[in-house]
Design brief:
The protein has helices at residues 16-19, 52-70, 85-93, 144-155, 213-219; strands at 23-24, 45-50, 75-81, 99-108, 118-122, 132-140, 160-168, 181-185, 191-192, 208-211. It is of the alpha/beta class. The radius of gyration is 17 Å and the shape is globular. The chain binds inosinic acid and magnesium ion.
């Protein structure tokens, strides 16, 4: 991943592919100092990768871009459970558009392994046929989740689908899938907080942080698949 001297600004272009230049996570910006980790989290969290302030600022930029692209028609926001919980709440509270919200649940079958098959644990309730859909997920990692969910949504024949993720870990991509709106590009670290979990923990941290190696060892689990 390229190092950048400054956070990328949101472009004024109208094209969805270019409007939303993701921000590099804080350690890749000019001052490589890691923000302070609150004493409560020091044992488990090695460092803060994205602060609350950076999250808030970036999400507000993302909502502006989404608002431009979705104006004029009621949209359906489809959010992938459960990692999107905080991101989704902050994103939609700033979306000044009529919308309906639904959730889709997807989980990997072979628990604790990286290669488990994906199964749907919660189906959509809203009919998205001929609707403008925004699919929201926490992180685009291998891309397996996003491509399976997209495949399922496309079969329901929406009018348009755009994808939105808080984090993009491009280095681990296996599937040929991209997000239209990306909050932050991050390196290949396993991150937690702001909705993201490890073994269902740490979702409540208000920042995105890097977990200490020792936590994986204690739980004796692969960090990626639950
Ligand atoms: P993908 O199918 O490999 O793209 O992974 C997507 C899902 O894996 C995400 O929705 C997360 O639940 C989980 N995941 C991937 N990377 C991380 C991480 O660094 N921290 C927490 N969860 C992750
Ligand atoms: Mg998830």
């Amino acid at each position: 991943m390229e190092k950048s001297d400054r956070p990328a600004n949101v472009s004024k272009s109208k094209s969805p592919a270019q409007t939303h230049q993701p921000e590099p996570a804080s350690e890749m910006t000019e001052d490589r100092k890691s923000p302070h980790v609150d004493i409560r989290w020091l044992k488990d969290i090695e460092r803060v990768l994205i602060t609350e302030q950076q999250l808030a600022r970036r999400i507000s930029e993302m909502t502006q871009a989404i608002q431009r692209d979705f104006s004029g028609r009621e949209m359906v926001v489809v959010s992938v459970l459960s990692g999107t919980v905080m991101f989704l709440a902050d994103l939609i509270r700033h979306l000044n558009l009529p919308l309906r919200l639904d959730f889709i649940g997807v989980s990997s079958y072979g628990a604790g392994t990286e290669s488990g098959d994906l199964v749907f644990t919660k189906e959509l309730r809203i009919d998205v046929k001929n609707r403008d859909v925004l699919l929201v997920d926490d992180i685009l990692d291998t891309g397996k989740t996003m491509s399976r969910v997209l495949e399922k949504l496309k079969a329901l024949r929406p009018r348009k689908i755009r994808t939105c993720v808080l984090l993009n870990k491009a280095a681990r991509r296996v599937e040929n899938v991209k997000a239209d709106y990306i909050g932050f590009e991050i390196p290949d670290y396993f991150v937690v907080g702001y909705g993201l979990d490890f073994a269902e923990r740490y979702r409540n941290l208000p920042f995105v942080g890097v977990l200490h190696e020792h936590v994986f060892k204690e739980v004796q689990k692969s960090p990626y698949r639950k």
